Each structure stands twice: as structure tokens, then as C-alpha cells.
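Sample log: IncP-type DNA relaxase TraI.
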Amino acid sequence: MIAKHIPIRSLGKSDFARLVNYITDEQSKAHRLGKVRLTNCEAYSVRDAISEVLATQLGNTRAKSDKTYHLILSFRAGEQISTEILSAIEGRICKGLGFDKHQRISAVHNDTDNLHVHIAINKIHPTRNTIHEPYYSHQALAELCEALEQDYGLQRDNHIPRQRGAEARAADMERHAGIESLLGWIKRECLDELKKAQSWSALHQIMRDNGLEIRERGNGLVVVAGDNTMVKASTLGRDFSRPRLEARFGKFDSEQAQKGKPHRQYCKDPMRLRVNTSELYARYKSEQQSAMANKKVALDKARRQKERQIESAKQKGKNRRAAIKLAGSGKFTKKLLYAQASSALKADMDSIQQQCKEARQAIYKTHGRRTWADWLKCKAQEGDAEALMALRAREAAQGLKGNTIKGEGQLKAAHTPIIDNITKKGTILYRAGVSAVRDDGDRLQVSTQSDQMGIQSALRIAMERYGDRITVNGTPEFKARVIRAAVDSQLPITFADDFLERKRQTLMNGGNVTKGNQKAERRGVTPVGQKPPPIRRNRLNTLAHLNVLSIGGEAAKKQPAPSQGLTAQKRLQAKLQAEMNAKKAKQQSKGRSR
């Protein structure tokens, strides 16, 4: 589990309403948005809660810093957590930061490989109107995460950041955009050579051989690549700061090395993957250039249309005023008509401005630039198999864990399930009723909160895409639900696990077990021509206690209730005894009343 505060880039962009609208937007994805929770708010809807928080923030006129605190709680890939535990974790995190009494709105997101929660917190106290800023929040969040992992049995994560500043931003770019950063390239390709330099001239020569240049900038030094991309020299390591270098080599010498063709140089290319993406990247650059040209044409067209509409509205206003001037009305009537004409012109201008704003937003959305990873994701959603393979070949992509289903063997005729989303790691999210099925190309994952329809859909997808021999991994409860789903849906599959397969066949046959099979089971031998032996008593009791095998099954209807275990004679005796006791109590009550 990782908790991270997302600061704003400028105070002008701080907007609680915009943040809440983003975290509560489904974005046309059925399973993106999970539980939305309002805390310490009198309102019952998100819209009213936003108004309430904004009114509270207006109560503080002295604070000049950001009044909104954006917090993200992210869990390990494949980790499924119940709504109750998520609410408890959110409460403890906010209390540990000092926001226990503050208004906040949280939303659970399921559209990535990592379950995460966005929390929008009002830093203004609802009654005191004072602003609260957590002290050393990153350290407090790390301690809280460690305690929560122990208390709730969550998967352990690293809470101490190893990278800060530009180094952390470069790592984020490589992970999210998929493009190699200059800092990462230098560390991987030539950092060891740079460390061996013993003078300024040697350092300049090594820089030149790798297509780099070290320059003065302000009071420090920067490393510049051939495309003018630059990083601070100190981000390469403490030994490359200006004071350290001058302590070793003397005063900075800007003398350039011998000019020559570099052995290698930095290019903004994709990170190295397990597959060749040269053709895909060429398509990406070509489409980006076309998108920029099309965006310029579309913006020019929208601007000209806006100018024509404004000119038409102004001409219409002039005609109104001219008609009023020629009318033989009184002074007071003309004044009123002129006011109405001005209001009509202002309304037309506002409408034109709004239409132009919406048109520009649509143009930027259609023809906007995309990162390499976002472009791959978009192409994968359009059905490009090469783009999907490239996403799954990224270093960040890891196999699904937890409750998973894997199929192998003979493929069946496949139907086309509805795709809800594709993550940047190449995981496909299929819609399955009220739940979602995740597919990483090797196995499928079903959340613990999914219903039987979701598990049946996962089995059907696994059979049709990967084969009819199914391997199930996960908790005993999940395995039991998979068995029941396979029996209810009558799918022609077999389980790789012998125990699960025997249980499936037993339930398919109505749960009937012959005495011969019981004896064979005790001997550990299956007679020739007989059905597979039933599940042993201790394992059957374990699954029966899970109370999931009886969902929608005929075998559950045949199982007697605890009261049905009594004989007819004992039930009759119990009924007579109850009637005698009731009659005796009635007679005693009558005697007391007399």
C-alpha cells in the first residue's frame, strides 16, 4: 500500500469542484468508479457536498495557500479489498494527518491494475475556519501505511522514496509515458565512464563522445543533449554537483573537447521492450505530426466561424438599435428598448463564446498529442494486436495475482465480450454484469466482490480464448464458487486440479454417491467403469461451511436443514410437549387473574 499527496502546480489551478468532478467521473467506463463516500458533510449528494465545501473555504479569507488536499491510496496489483476495510483505512489515514473532522469526498477507482482511492480533503476546518497543513506528511503517511499493512494483512510495499526531485519525475515519465528520459539514458549508458574522468578535459571528451555537453547555468551546471534536452548535473549523483567537481578538478573550465562524431547519443525513443516496436513508433510519430497539422486547421476554422458569428451578432444588434431609433416611441420607451437590445446582444455574445469554448475543447481532445503509452493503449482499444503486445511487453507489466483462472487445451468458438477498458500494462477489462473480468493474455482475474455471473463469464472467456482445461488459483472460497459456476452454467470444461474436478463431477451427477465408490474412496482406488470417488468428508465439510456451493444449485435443495435431521416421532413429541406447556401457562394466568 502506498499513500501519496498530489500537490498542485500553481494556486490558480486549485479547484475542489474540478477535483471532485474528476474523481467521480465514470469516463464512459462501467467499472471505473467504485464506492463514493462523503465524510463530515451535511449534504447527501456529491453536488451539494461540493457547494458545502466551497462555502466553508470562502469562510477563510486569510489563507493564501492551497485549501484542497488531494490524497491517493494505491494498493498492490491484484490486491482486492472490501469496501468496509477501505473505509476504515481512509478514516485512519485522514485522522493520522489531522483531517479527522474535515470535510472530504473519496472515490474508489478500478480502471487500472492497482486498486486505488482518490480523496479530496478540505483543509479548512468546518467550524473554526482555520487551515491545517500536515507536518512532514510523507513521513507520517509512510508510518501509517506500515501500521495499516500489519493490521489488515495487506501486501507489504516500500514507503521510503528512493528518488526525489528531477530523478523521481524522470522515473515517472519512463513508467507512465514509456519514453526513455535523458537522466535514465545517461545512468544506463555512460555514467560509469563519467565517474572515471580525472580532469575537466577528460569529462568534456566523454560528454562529447556520448553526444552530451556540460554547461554553466546560473550558479550550477547542466548536462545538455543534442536535442537541447537538459538535466542538472547534480541529479546524476552528488559527485557531479558544481562544488564537488570544482573541488576535484579546479575552477570550471568551459573548454570544449575535440569535435567529432559521437559514438552514441540520446534520442527520445521508447523504453526497450521484449518486442520490436520500431514500426509502431514510426506510425506513432507520423500520426502525431498529422494530428498537430489537423489541430491547427481545425482551430483556424473554429476561429473564423467565431468571427463570423460575432460579426453577425453585432450587425443584428445594430439593426435593432436602428429600428428603435426610427420608431416613434417616447423617451422612456426607447430607453427600455435600448436596454433590451443590449441584453440580447450580450446574451448572443456569451452564447458564441461558450460554443467556441466547447468546440476548442473537442478539437484538443480529438487532435491532441498523446504519450507513447497512451497511443498504444488507444490503438489496443481499437483492436491493434501489435499495440496490445507492446503494452504487455513493458517492464511495468506483471502477471495477474490473487483469484485467477487459466485455460489451456482445445480452443472453442469464441464470442466477442464487451471491453470496458485496457490499462497501460495491457490488461483487458471485460464487462461481466455488475463485475469485471481482467485478462493479461495468460490468465483471468475475478474480484472477490463479483457475483456468480461474473465467474461464469470468466470461465466462458477462459474456455473460448485459452482452452477447456481450467486451472484455478486463489482462496478456497473462490475455488468453491468456481465449481458452482461451472456446474450451473453446464460448461464443457475440466479442472486441472483432481479435487476440484471430482467435486464438479459429483455435483453434475446430482451429488449421488454409491457405497462402492465410498469404499473405493477409503481405499484410495477408483474402480474401472465407476464414477470418480466423492470428496473426503473433512474437505466437503470445509467447503460446505463456506455457504457458496449452494448458490443456485439443485444439490443444495436436496440437503436437509438442521431441523429435518430429527425423526418424525421426536418432532411429534416436541409438538405435544409445547402444547401442554402452553395450556398449563394459560391456566396459571387465569388463576392469578381471579
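Observation: The chain has 20 helices and 15 strands.
Observation: Residues 398-558 form one domain.
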